[in-house]
Amino acid sequence: MKKTEQIIKISLFMGMLLLPPLLWYGIRIFSPQTYQKLDYDLGEKTNVEFPEEFHIENYTQQLEAYYNDNAPFRSTLISWHHKLSGALERVYGDHLQGRLTRLIYGPDSADFLAPQIVGNIVLLGRENWLFYAGDDSISYYRGTNVLEQEQMAERLDLMVRLQELCNDRGIQLQFIILPNKEQVYAEYMPSYVIEDNYRRTDRFVDYIKEHSDVPIIYPLQELQQAASNWQIYHQYDTHWNHAGSYIGTQALYEALGLPTSNLQDLEVSRCAATTSDLLILGGLDVSQYPAEQDYAINYRPEVTLTEVQGDLQPMSIYSARSDCGNNTEFVLIGDSFRCFMIDYLAKDFSHCVITYRETSDNSTDYPEDVVESIRNADILVMEAVERYDNKLFPAIEKVIEILQTAE
């Protein structure tokens, strides 16, 4: 009897191991279209290959890494897990969290909202607002990751070196650090203890201004003021929207000593939002969230663009010429926040090149046409959203190298 029981258990165990890959490869052979639908890429795979050799001290970890990355139905199962987690967490947030909070903290605790993260990366806020929890964003918000004096000094030294090179070549340099969404819309954040209101970026920008004449701005105040009249960041996305990017661009122009304009004076209409990455990252049920709107801004319709290359995608290099007539060569090196600025920048300079800090292989080896644009720039802007401030400095080093090797 025991032997029969053992055989059954072993058979069940082997079936659990063998059935999914057999079914997976059967679908791949007999129904390629179904296989393609199930084998979509969530951007989480690291392409781990089966180990060519095993090491006795960590062979189990080698096998685990391979099967975690190549498990049958992997993407489908992850998506199901995200959706189920999101559904359960939504039920908890809508029906249980408030009651438990009042029970534990008393009847006057209605304003308390405990932090809750879904999909390991999306922070649920108040009134259906979602926030990005990755890249140490919460530490920036709570003020727990301020830079040491030595770190700020090292970063400033690098910025000064670039400024000196730009001055020698007649290039107007400007640094801009953009606020994380939660800095502008703190009222929608869950209840965190703020350790220090004098946060990392404020400290660093003040340090630069106190110890140098390096031009840098952090337009938090401008964006906070604009938020009283416009929604300036997406509710379901970590980025700013068209109104926010317009306000940020005008703050940049003011720092550069260029003419600015008021959003109130432009033709602005409502339109559907085109991005909602936090709903996707959190595996949340889109149907449970009201549709979000953005703004369509009719900016300088009299200006015509020519020689347009690239697109508005985060990893793209965008360049264009316009008939605006100022004969200015403009270069901006930044992250995905730069994409919504392109609608305005492209019409305000005779030639603009707007590129990602890193190329597709995560290096800062720019194509030769971008290198030449940097060397010939009249205005050079280095941009970073604050949670990516660390990534700004390898890009600065690369631009220093480009300018130092210019003929």
Strand content: 5-15%
Structural class: alpha/beta
Order of helices and strands: HHHHEEEHHEHHEHHEHEEEEHEHEH
Arithmetic mean pLDDT: 84
Q: Mind summarizing the main beta sheet? A: 7 strands, mixed
- As residue ranges, the low-confidence spans are 40-46
Q: In percent, how helical is the residue content?
A: 40-55%
Shape: globular
The spatial strand order of the largest sheet comes to: 5-4-12-10-11-9-8
Q: How many separate helices?
A: 14
Number of separate strands: 12
Query: What's the alpha carbon Rg, rounded to whole Å?
Result: 26 Å
| Termini separation | 86 Å
Summed up:
The chain has about 400 residues and is an alpha/beta fold. It has helices at about 1-30, 30-40, 60-70, 75-105, 135-140, 150-170, 180-185, 200-210, 220-225, 240-255, 275-280, 340-350, 370-375, 390-405; strands at about 115-120, 120-125, 130, 170-180, 215, 265-270, 295-300, 305-310, 320, 330-335, 350-355, 380-385.
